[in-house]
Every structure is written in structure tokens, then in C-alpha cells.
Structure to design on (649 residues):
């Protein structure tokens, strides 16, 4: 359609829905008409040649208008407030925590009772791991959804969720929920109908009559869970067909080449917006487009679909930001912020998975050179977007950065990765880490790492050994890792339990629905009696809780730590220290992290390389003022410590 015709078409749709374009709905009508050309063009790029194009395009627009009409007033107001703030999610005053509702607080109502705990810690943003219906025992931690709109009875009811959101809003907290876009559970109504032979719903998935195409695809598609769920296809005896299952065999991949799938899932995205979601975590977006002869990851069509989602959200619920959970190679992650005409117009937030893994690399080696060599793609994040900055999450740690980064640091990639895996699995001589390898692929030699922050930092073993020095090191490492995630730029997202130094929980081994997946070792069940120890003098819980609290408070008070793309890496004068500057017109913060088990020395000259020479540096962490010395003298960072130094002339 040409632009005049499209505008007239859009206006007619609005009229038909009684939208008051000149009165109360003016802002919406304007957004709708402004974004319509982008929505149409992106939609046509994917579905232009599809026989269902017209009917599904109408359905999409209808869903956008309906969702606006159903948007609760509270969230319309919140949209306005966020718009006034600009990119609200860049703020240094947002700190998140990711948690399983049941393991953290028993239920959604239980969680409502715990909001004061978050306030005490300084957390004002919650990522609830999936709460919608998912079959027990075949749930992948909730990522195998059988009903996208019904809260699982294990957690409570839809009403409980709405009440929680209301309580959170009253406390000015933000909410993140997942949309599991790539697949459904095999118990989802669509899957059930497909299994029963309904061709309409079989077209919602990738069904094959025989192994011909699956065999071809298997040649190029990497396996995600090679141990527990090898291959990417599952035989369905009920209909004598094969279905694509990239993740577990009970997670069926949705077929986004069918516009009906996109329209239905987009409607769910907007439904979540109207529940009051502030940041929507799009689960596994890298996988949503499949094509023969490719890895079926990060394909251009996946990006087009994400841009389309963003455009629809901008119209219907502009206050909801989009997080793309793309845990892929550094150069690929960055593309989820948008490229070409869509720079900063795709996902607003992405996991800084590269940086997270690099911090683990530095911790195991005591050497920050790989981290430094990897910053180039990380720093390409466009202005207006931000990272989700984290040390641990519910998933494994993948060493997904590129070989050239390791080579540039002077190491052999194969030996380096082998060392890291052995170190964190606790196999390397002298390793204090108590983790495990996850998804070992004997064909490729790949493996990822499971384990809680505290256990990977050595606390579990050190306590077992009753080794005071290693206990002290472990506690320092925990805070060092959290500090760098906190000050790097982006929304810090803590993982529940880490604020209290929870070690691995091996009870998952007794549960047949979990025992095949060792990621459960770092998904603890909160023990609120133990959590009380955060008030007990001399306990690890108290030390880690207080220091985490202090990290958040320190970040909150320094506006320069909001993500205005203001990170400059310092010249590496000492390979054990990661150092960068966060600056704005009137402040310069030197953030330094010592990954070595002994003290590290940094020449004072390092502080004189970027503009004015400071005479005194105030450490916001220790409170100490350091007089800047001569170039042949040193600033000393104790073992596994950090400093947040502000020039105070
Ligand atoms: C995401 C989730 C992970 C899950 C996978 C499949 O990567 O974080 O936990 O297993 O998607 O849904």
C-alpha cells in the first residue's frame, strides 16, 4: 500500500473501533499511524507472499488496538511517566533480582509478603521465572509452557499475580516476565490438537512425515542439550510424524513462517504488557527462525520478527521495554539491539553474556587480558539501549566468546577453555571451585558450567576444608564479581540466593523431573530461617548481604553509573586488574577490580592518562581518600578487591 492509502486504511480501522483520534486517544492514534508503515513493511518482509497475509495483518492490527483499549489506566499512566523520563531503563537506580516464585517464597502470595525483603536489600525490579502453566516434571523450569495465560496452580492464580503487580507498583517496583516465544510444551492445546492430527495446528509447528529434512537440518543445527535431549527432532507416534524440538523433546518449536503463529504470540506479548510487565524477557529469540542449510540461529528473519514485535509494543504499550535473551557469540548479541535502519530499535536490553563469562574467565586465571580483548564488540552497544548485567542467572555459564579474543591475550583457545572447564568443575589441581559441566557434547568437546556463585567462588569447598584463608578469598571473590557486574553499565540482575552466599543445592538429584539437568544445583530453595542469619554478627550471610546492599546503595547514589554509554577502558598497566572509567561532564569514576589472589600494584600514572591529573582519589567503596603519588609509586589493590575511585581535586 502507498503511504496515503495506508494512512486511510489505518484511520478507518481506528474509526471502526471507536478510537477518539482527536480526543482522549490522540496519543495512541498518533503512535498507531506513525508506526503503521514500519509494521506493514516488516510484516510484508516475512509474510508478504503468504496466502494468509491480508487476514493475518488485519488480525495483528486488531490485536494492537484491542490491547490498547484494554490497557488498565495505571499502566497508561506509567507509560506516560516513563516516556517523560526518556529511556527509563538506563537509570542507575534500578537493581533487579531473578527468582523462582515457588523456590523463593512458596507461591505468588508468599512473594507478595516478601516485598520488604527486596526493599531492605535495595532491589526494585523482579524477574519472575516463568509462572504460567507448565507440566510438572517436563517443565524446563517453566520454559515449557502449556498455557500462556493461566498462572500455574503451583504458584497461585491469575488474581494472585495481579495482586502482586499492584503491590509492587505501590512500592515503585518494576516487573519482568518471560514470553517463551520459540516453543510450547507438548501439552499446549495447539500441540495436543496437532498430535491428534489437526492439520491447522500441525502448521503451528515443524512437522515432518519422515526423517529426510530432519536429517539434513541435523547436519547444521547445533545441539542445545546434547546429553539430556540429543538432536533437534522428536518422533510423535500418535500421528506418526517428526516434530522439531530444538531444546527438550517436550518443547515443540513454533513455526513462525505461519503468520497465525506470529499473530497469536504477539497477542500474548500485548496481554503480558497489560498485566503490568515493565520489561518483557523474550526467551531464546535467536532460535525463532529456521532455514535449511543454516544453524537456525540468529537468522535475519529472527531480527525482522523482533523489530516487528518492538514496533507493535511501541504502539500499544510504549512503557514496556524488550529484553532479548540472546546468549550467542559477542558479534551476534550486539545485533539484537538492531542494525542498519533499526539501530536501537529492536531489543532495548540484552544479556551481557560475554562480559559475564569473561569475569569467570578472569577469576579462574587471575588474568584480565581476555576480558580486555573482548571489549570491542561489547562497546558497540548503541546509545539508548542497555545491558542486563549479571554474574549468575538460572542458566549455565557458556564460554561463548570468540577464540581470537583468547588468542589476542596470548593463550591457546583449546587449552584455555579446557583449563576453565576443569577449573570450575573442580577437577584442576588446586581449584577451589565446586561446579559441574553442563551439556557436554562429546562430538564437539563443548561444555558449559553449572554451579552457584558461592560454590564457583570456592565457599563450598573452603568451608568443607575448614580453611579460613580460602573462606576469606571466596567471600571476597563473590563481592568482586558482583561489583564488576554492578558498575560495568546496565541493569544489574542478581540471582536469588547469591545475596546470601547460597552454595549448591544437590537435592535436585532426587527429583526425576530435574535430575537430568544439573542447572538445578544453582537454583536453591530459600530457607528463611537461614536467611535470618543476615542479622547474625560474624556470619557469611551477614557479610555478603550487607556488602551486596552496599553495592546497590553505592550505585544508586552515583548518577554517572547510569548507562549513557560512558565506559572507557584504561590502559592495562597490570594484567590482573580490570580497569575502566565511567564519566560524564562533571564526574570521573575509576573502577578497578583485582582478580589476583595476592595484592596487585597499579602505577599512579594510570590515573593521569585521561585528562586532568587528580591529586586525591576518593574510594566510594572503602571510604578512603588516596593521595595520588608519583609515577614510580603504586596504588595497591588487596587480593580479590576492587575500588571505585572518584577524582576529588
Ligand atoms: C532460555 C532459558 C533456559 C531454557 C531455554 C529454553 O535459554 O533461559 O532456561 O532452558 O531458554 O526455553
Amino acid at each position: 500500500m502507498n503511504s496515503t492509502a495506508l494512512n486511510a486504511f489505518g484511520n478507518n480501522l481506528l474509526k471502526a473501533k471507536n478510537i477518539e483520534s482527536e480526543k482522549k486517544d490522540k496519543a495512541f492514534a498518533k503512535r498507531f499511524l506513525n508506526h503503521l508503515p514500519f509494521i506493514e513493511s516488516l510484516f510484508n518482509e516475512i509474510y508478504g507472499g503468504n496466502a494468509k497475509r491480508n487476514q493475518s495483518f488485519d488480525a495483528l492490527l486488531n490485536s494492537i488496538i484491542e490491547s490498547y483499549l484494554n490497557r488498565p489506566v495505571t499502566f497508561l499512566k506509567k507509560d506516560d511517566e516513563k516516556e517523560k523520563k526518556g529511556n527509563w531503563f538506563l537509570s542507575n537506580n534500578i537493581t533487579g533480582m531473578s527468582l523462582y516464585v515457588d523456590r523463593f517464597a512458596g507461591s505468588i502470595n508468599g512473594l507478595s509478603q516478601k516485598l520488604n525483603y527486596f526493599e531492605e536489600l535495595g532491589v526494585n525490579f523482579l524477574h519472575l521465572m516463568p509462572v504460567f502453566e507448565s507440566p510438572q516434571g517436563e517443565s524446563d523450569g517453566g520454559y515449557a509452557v502449556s498455557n500462556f495465560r493461566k498462572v500455574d496452580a503451583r504458584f497461585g492464580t491469575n488474581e494472585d499475580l495481579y495482586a502482586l503487580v499492584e503491590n509492587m507498583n505501590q512500592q515503585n517496583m518494576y516487573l519482568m516476565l518471560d514470553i517463551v516465544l520459540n516453543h510450547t510444551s507438548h501439552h499446549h492445546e495447539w500441540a495436543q490438537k496437532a498430535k491428534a492430527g489437526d492439520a491447522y495446528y500441525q502448521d503451528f509447528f515443524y512437522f515432518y512425515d519422515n526423517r529426510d529434512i530432519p536429517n539434513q537440518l541435523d547436519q547444521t543445527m547445533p545441539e542445545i542439550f546434547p546429553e539430556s535431549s540429543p538432536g533437534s527432532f522428536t518422533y510423535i507416534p500418535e500421528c506418526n510424524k517428526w516434530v522439531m524440538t530444538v531444546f527438550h523433546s517436550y518443547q515443540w518449536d513454533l513455526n513462525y513462517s505461519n503468520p497465525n503463529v506470529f499473530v497469536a504470540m504477539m497477542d500474548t506479548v500485548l496481554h503480558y504488557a497489560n498485566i503490568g510487565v515493565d520489561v518483557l524477557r523474550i526467551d531464546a529469540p535467536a532460535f525463532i527462525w529456521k532455514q535449511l542449510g543454516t544453524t537456525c540461529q540468529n537468522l535475519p528473519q529472527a531480527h525482522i520478527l523482533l523489530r516487528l514485535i518492538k514496533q507493535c509494543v511501541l504502539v500499544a504499550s510504549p512503557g514496556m521495554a524488550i529484553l532479548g535473551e540472546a546468549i550467542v557469540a559477542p558479534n551476534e548479541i550486539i545485533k539484537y539491539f538492531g542494525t542498519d535502519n533499526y539501530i536501537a530499535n529492536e531489543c532495548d536490553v540484552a544479556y551481557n553474556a560475554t562480559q559475564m563469562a569473561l569475569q569467570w574467565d578472569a577469576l579462574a586465571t587471575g588474568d584480565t587480558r581476555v576480558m580486555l580483548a573482548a571489549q570491542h564488540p561489547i562497546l558497540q552497544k548503541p546509545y539508548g539501549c542497555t545491558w542486563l548485567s549479571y554474574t549468575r542467572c538460572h542458566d549455565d555459564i557458556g564460554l561463548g566468546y570468540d577464540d581470537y579474543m583468547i588468542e589476542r591475550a596470548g593463550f591457546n583457545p583449546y587449552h584455555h577453555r579446557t583449563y576453565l572447564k576443569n577449573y570450575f568443575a573442580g577437577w584442576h589441581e588446586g581449584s577451589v571451585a565446586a561446579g559441574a559441566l553442563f551439556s557436554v557434547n562429546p562430538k564437539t568437546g563443548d561444555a558449559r558450567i553449572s554451579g552457584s556463585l558461592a560454590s564457583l567462588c570456592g565457599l563450598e569447598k573452603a568451608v568443607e576444608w575448614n580453611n579460613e584463608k580460602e573462606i576469606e578469598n571466596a567471600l571476597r571473590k563473590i563481592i568482586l564479581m558482583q561489583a564488576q557486574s554492578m558498575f560495568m553499565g546496565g541493569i544489574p540482575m542478581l540471582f536469588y540466593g547469591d545475596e546470601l552466599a547460597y552454595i549448591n543445592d544437590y537435592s535436585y538429584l532426587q527429583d526425576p523431573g530435574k535430575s537430568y539437568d544439573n542447572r538445578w544445583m544453582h537454583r536453591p530453595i530459600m530457607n528463611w530461617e537461614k536467611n535470618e542469619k543476615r542479622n547474625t554478627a560474624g556470619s557469611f550471610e551477614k557479610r555478603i548481604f550487607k556488602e551486596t546492599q552496599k553495592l546497590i546503595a553505592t550505585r544508586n547514589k552515583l548518577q554517572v553509573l547510569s548507562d549513557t554509554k560512558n565506559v572507557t577502558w584504561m590502559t592495562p598497566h597490570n594484567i590482573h586488574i580490570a580497569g575502566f572509567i565511567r564519566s560524564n561532564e562533571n564526574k570521573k569514576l575509576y573502577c578497578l577490580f583485582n582478580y589476583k589472589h595476592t595484592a596487585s600494584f597499579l602505577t599512579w600514572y594510570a590515573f593521569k592518562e585521561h585528562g586532568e591529573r587528580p591529586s586525591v582519589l576518593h574510594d566510594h567503596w572503602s571510604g578512603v581518600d588516596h593521595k595520588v603519588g608519583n609515577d614510580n609509586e603504586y596504588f595497591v589493590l588487596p587480593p580479590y578487591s576492587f575500588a571505585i575511585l572518584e577524582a576529588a581535586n
